[in-house]
């Protein structure tokens, strides 16, 4: 059984396929590499591979405890993130409908969280029902590290969708020995920029700016800008607006054609709304729709504000 698990791990790295295809890759008559022969798996079938998973999952806690003892100590960073994968069929009891990262409509999914040490070495994984929010997974992970792994003093490093302000306030700050590094949402960054808590001009001079804000008492905020991401965001936004405006012009043209012109504020608004919903650009334009026509104008001040914040990240700790 151990060789079956080891074989699946190696196969997943060198040639990831389904369990049926993996078994065929081991088989003496259909092998695709020497793995089956080296591990004596030439007669293994897919059912044996699934049985090996059952054997492995019964040892999960023991394996995780061992990994934690090797890689986590008091004062360690703990990296944590959540993702999901969609499912085919309906045989998984954890499969639920939720936010689908794979954009697979009509498919159930599972959510899973991964704990790693500061070097990215996986320590533990936990699977949740597919409708579980990222935020709600954190409490069980904190308890796992503190109680099962018996590591009391750690710094949690995770994204802003998991380590929210409410989670920091309720789960982290009240517990002695817990610290955190996370990020601010785009909306929070924009709010700080509006009250001039951060001087965006400083980013022309240095790579990092450390500052404080009354909105985040007893916290350090560290701002930085990634110029490559800034350029990418600006380019993508401009391309999106250009495509949208080409479509706007077609609507305007339709209102002015001689035959079967597009008339009526409701009909014109319907066409415009479809376009706005498709490209998610409503916030960028002032629109004027009448029974006989349609005009638009960019909200340049808003666009300039977004350009100023392109590529800006703010960490909180």
Mean pLDDT level? 91
Percentage beta strand: 15-25%
Low-confidence stretches: none
Structural class: alpha+beta
Question: Into how many domains do the coordinates divide?
Answer: 3
Number of strands: 10
Shape: extended
Taking the sheet with the most strands, its summary is:
8 strands, mixed
Describe, in plain words, how this protein is organized in 3D.
This protein has helices at residues 2-14, 19-26, 35-38, 46-57, 60-71, 138-148, 165-172, 186-194, 227-256, 265-279, 300-309; strands at residues 76-86, 109-116, 122-129, 154-157, 178-183, 208-211, 221-225, 285-289, 294-298, 312-316. The chain is an alpha+beta fold and 317 residues long. It folds into 3 domains: 2-57, no CATH class; 73-181, Nucleotidyltransferase, domain 5, CATH 3.30.420; 184-317, no CATH class. The strands form 2 sheets. The protein has an 8-stranded mixed β-sheet with strand order 3-2-1-4-5-10-7-6. A hairpin with a 5-residue loop joins strand 2 (109-116) and strand 3 (122-129). Helix 1 (2-14) crosses helix 4 (46-57) and helix 9 packs antiparallel against helix 10 (265-279). It is extended and about 75 Å long.
């Amino acid at each position: 059984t151990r060789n079956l698990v080891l074989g699946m791990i190696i196969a997943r790295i060198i040639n990831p396929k389904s369990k049926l295809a993996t078994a065929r890759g081991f088989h003496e008559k259909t092998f695709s590499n020497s793995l089956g022969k080296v591990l004596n798996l030439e007669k293994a079938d897919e059912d044996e591979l699934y049985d090996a998973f059952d054997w492995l999952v019964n040892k999960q806690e023991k394996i995780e405890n061992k990994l934690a003892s090797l890689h986590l100590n008091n004062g360690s960073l703990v990296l944590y993130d959540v993702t999901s994968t969609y499912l085919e069929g309906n045989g998984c009891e954890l499969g639920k409908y939720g936010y689908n990262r794979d954009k697979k409509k009509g498919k159930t999914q599972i959510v899973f969280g991964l704990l790693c040490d500061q070097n990215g070495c996986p320590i533990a994984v936990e699977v949740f029902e597919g409708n579980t929010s990222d935020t709600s997974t954190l409490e069980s992970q904190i308890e796992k590290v503190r109680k099962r792994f018996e590591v009391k003093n750690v710094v949690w490093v995770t994204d802003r969708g998991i380590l929210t302000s409410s989670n920091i306030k309720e789960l982290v700050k009240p517990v002695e020995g817990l610290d955190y590094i996370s990020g601010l949402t785009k909306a929070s960054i924009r709010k700080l920029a509006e009250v001039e808590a951060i001087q965006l001009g400083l980013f022309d001079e240095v790579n990092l700016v450390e500052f404080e804000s009354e909105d985040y008492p007893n916290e350090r905020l560290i701002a930085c800008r990634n110029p490559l991401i800034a350029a990418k965001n600006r380019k993508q936004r401009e391309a999106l607006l250009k495509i949208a405006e080409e479509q706007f012009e077609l609507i305007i043209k339709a209102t002015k054609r001689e035959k079967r012109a597009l008339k009526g504020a409701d009909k014109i608004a319907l066409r415009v709304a479809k376009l706005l919903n498709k490209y998610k650009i409503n916030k960028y334009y002032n629109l004027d729709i009448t029974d006989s026509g349609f005009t638009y104008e960019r909200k340049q001040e808003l666009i300039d504000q977004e350009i100023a914040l392109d590529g800006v990240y703010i960490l909180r700790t």
